[in-house]
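Recall the central idea of this unit: under ordinary conditions, the amino acid sequence of a chain determines the structure it adopts. In this exercise we apply that idea directly, starting from the sequence alone.
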Amino acid sequence: MIGLCQSLARGWWSKPIGGPGWLAGAPGGDMKARYLVVALLAAMVAVAASAASGGTNRAQAGKIVVWLQNDAQNGWPEAVALANRNFKAQHPDVDVDVQYQSWGTHLTKFDAALAGGDAPDVIELGNSEMSKYMAAGAFKRLTQSPFPNNKTWLTGLKVSCQYNGKLYGVPYYAGARAVIYRKDQYAKAGIKSTPKSLSQFVADGKKLMKTYGKDSGYSAVYFPGKYWYAAMSFVYDYGGQIAVQKGGKWKGTLNSPQAIQALNQVKTVFKSLTRASRTTDEANPQQALVFAKGKVGSFIGNGWEWPYALDAKLGNPALAPVIGAYPMPSHIKGRFMPTFLGGSDLAIPVTTKNQSLAADWIKAFTGNAAESEIAKAGNIANTTKLLAYNASNPKLAPFARAAKYSWFVPTSPNWANVENGNVLQNMLVSIATGRASVKAAANSASKQITRILNTGA
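Accordingly, the structure predicted from this sequence is:
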């Protein structure tokens, strides 16, 4: 899924301009062909690792090579400079060559570099890009304890760095979703404060519908039928999961009692609070621009969607004084609903001879000092310890607070096939349209997820 919703990597307050594939798996194509990718990549990695054993040792040459996306170059260069200075203080005879990449070409370049035995010593990948490389053995296995704040890493990022219970990456930074809302509409509906529980969120939504719902195009919550990122947050909030892995086998679990309870709550939102299309997603049409037209009380959106709603050409700048945001509340009063985290991780390719040096650079780049610079640029740092960094900024703080509780998709190399097969989307459409009961739709989706994650098709 390449599109606007995948551009968190460019910072919350940048207008999205393309797609790193952050929030979803690889773009479309034949499922069987994609199923072969991991096997082919694994064979390529094995050959490259063997060839690299006879190559030039960069440590002898006094240099390590780091690949970062150009977001760092343009958005938080001081964090990179700070990491380099700290690394250089520890290793005065080793230089750091930071080479900036673009989201559209970095995987093609990385595959070629792996095949040629000339991969970088450190690489940044979108967290949804990690699974196939971890499964193929492309990254060095890491020990968690040496890295800064490892006990407080954001859950959604940490999970994306793990494969079969082992760690192959280090969380870098994230973006999260929160409820973006119209303060003026809330006030007119008699809502005096933002909700602190899911039940209050629903009750407030009903107040909005009572106040504005005579307009047939109005939604208290804009929630289109295929918006699975938001819907799955309900599932994780109630203690459910999309799938679990046991003994090397995956099992779809959207038919668990917890998930069924959550999906019934999603059905309530569909039925009572939204008039969004039951058969489209949040990007078609783009929900921030629908919000900008004035007939939406709130929507669950990424940080960049706030300013996008105010875009002078596509949105409505006049709404600037009346927009706010708050973390989506949990069904447990006082907590937040877990949010899907898009983000980036750092990994050490298996072909490197400089694992220790690479790890030291990652430590320098993910320590509090550098992560604070990353947060200053409008991103979410990789640790819950720094979520309050932007507490005084009402345009950033709600999204950072939301990241306290987070989730991520199953780290199977076949996950992209679930996404591209529209399994979750079709389940939600069935629920939203009433074509199937929640239980029947969840049972069907769980069977499909089990099959696809285990077989690839």
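The chain has two domains: 4-175+341-407, 177-339+412-455.
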